[in-house]
Amino acid sequence: MSQSASAFYPVGIPGQPWGEAERAQWRARQRRQRSHAEDVVAAVQELAVRFEVVEYGRLAPEAGGHPLLALHTRHWDPALPVALVTGGVHGYETSGVHGALEFATHHAGDYAGRCNLLVVPCVSPWGYEHIQRWNHDAIDPNRSFREDSPAPEAAALMRLVAPLQGRVRVHIDLHETTDTDESEFRPALAARDGKPFVPGGIPDGFYLVGDTARPQPAFQAAIIAAVEQVTHIALPDGNGRIIGSPVVAHGVIEYPCRELGLCAGLTDAPYVTTTEVYPDSPRATQAQCNAAQVAAMRAALDHALAAG
Predict the structure, then answer these.
(1) d(CA 201, CA 218)
(2) How many other C-beta atoms lie within 10 A of the C-beta of residue 75?
(3) Which CATH number goes with the domain that contains 124?
(4) For residues 49 and 15, what is the distance between their CA atoms, to the nearest angstrom?
(5) Using one digit for the tens of pLDDT, what is the confidence trace for 64-100?
(6) Could you please report the per-residue DSSP string of 167-204?
(7) What is residue 20's three-state secondary structure?
(8) What does pTM read for this prediction?
(9) Which helix (H) or strand (E) holds 308?
(10) Helices then strands (H, E): number in the chain?
């Protein structure tokens, strides 16, 4: 989408931040396109024979009333470290949700006796159903992991994880970077905040976002090496950047996760990363995207648990 075509988002007045009327107008444009109950809740219920299923919150009726569900190791051992997997913080990022479920279904057993698993496959059910980055209130959950969070999805997850602080060894947060980031979500963000939209680029391939406070280059490299067996890794642009951030290693950039209110800043785990799959690449299928997420999870857990 060109700058001229995307300069005006069809909600609100350019240069003026949205109020409640504009948020309601934006919400009226959204359409339910898939079922959280059929795709996520049903899969979680099938896994109840192997995991403890925890409903750690529920969205308000106007946001669909969806249960917020987590899977955790049935025979929880307080002596073992905790591995946290989060998907669907941005509900439209499909492989994060389904990759987490595939991992729980086919690979979680490999970590029995090595760690306690806490898998949260779909943090934002309304976003999942509407294939939307924001929640029902036009708030980005992945900028809302902070005290007095305005996003109920983020606040509920923070409450779930709070008792585990100091025990989480590794946290992997599963995301995607899509073409609609540039065509829809970034223009909407600019309009919502009353700012001009500045066009950017979408990298072709998988990459990781590490935390500037906890870089762990060997950990990030191990994940990239594993994913590279499944799908291609994004290359930097002509300025040595991916989505505007300097590349610090092959396929790796860094953000100050806690400062930005990102899910990756949720815990004080020493090993933290955010995956970014590119599902719109002509070189990657949906199955490959899910497999890339699974490969990233396995490599992250293997490295973090071996490192101690």
Answers:
(1) 28
(2) 8
(3) 3.40.630.10
(4) 53
(5) 999 999 999 999 999 999 999 999 999 999 999 999 9
(6) TEEEEEEEEE--HHIIIIIHHHHHHHTT---------S
(7) helix
(8) 0.96
(9) none
(10) 12, 10
